[in-house]
Amino acid sequence: KAIYVLNGPNLNLLGTREPNIYGRTTLADIGDMTVAEAKAHGFDVVFRQSNHEGELVEWIQEAREAASGVIINAGAYTHTSVAIHDALRALAIPVVEVHLSNTFSREEFRHRSLISPVAKGLIVGFGANSYVLAVDALASLIEEAAE
Ligand code: DQA
């Protein structure tokens, strides 16, 4: 089974969007980095991005059957989406929340996450490397559960 890496709104613009905050690495580059890191742990990756809340919900539902774990950067939906919260809550597999920026050092409205209460853990603030660290964290969780 694969690791699902799901990306929310505006993350398709990475590389050109506010590079001072989010860096110059594109989402395609991050996809390559996660695939390489997951491969080292023996996992395949399904890497996707959507600007639509409902599509993210459908992918999370799909992960119920198809994935051994989920890494999610829900973008701005992190702070607003009860639907994504509920979809993640219904998963029996581990969820890791990631953010490129340190959301806690930014505006007040980014301090609340509806993803965090249903995540096993969070990795925030390390730019593109947050994703690589998240793959390592998720792979250890899955390996530990299989022991
Ligand atoms: C983000 C942080 C969110 O607050 C923001 O809306 C994003 C990106 C991050 O990865 O730092 O779109 O999730």
UniProtKB/TrEMBL annotation:
The record marks R17 as: Transition state stabilizer. It comes from Rhizomicrobium electricum. The keyword Methyltransferase does not apply. Belongs to the type-II 3-dehydroquinase family. It catalyses: 3-dehydroquinate = 3-dehydroshikimate + H2O. Homododecamer. InterPro entries: DHquinase_II, DHquinase_II_CS, DHquinase_II_sf. It holds the Pfam family DHquinase_II. This is 3-dehydroquinate dehydratase. Catalyzes a trans-dehydration via an enolate intermediate. The keyword Lyase applies. Its EC number is 4.2.1.10. Pathway: Metabolic intermediate biosynthesis; chorismate biosynthesis; chorismate from D-erythrose 4-phosphate and phosphoenolpyruvate: step 3/7. The active site is at Y22 (proton acceptor), H99 (proton donor). Substrate binds at N73, H79, D86, L100, S101, R110. SUPFAM superfamilies: Type II 3-dehydroquinate dehydratase. Coiled coil: none annotated. Keywords: Amino-acid biosynthesis, Aromatic amino acid biosynthesis, Lyase. It is an enzyme of class 4 (lyase). It comes from the Bacteria. PROSITE patterns: DEHYDROQUINASE_II (PS01029).
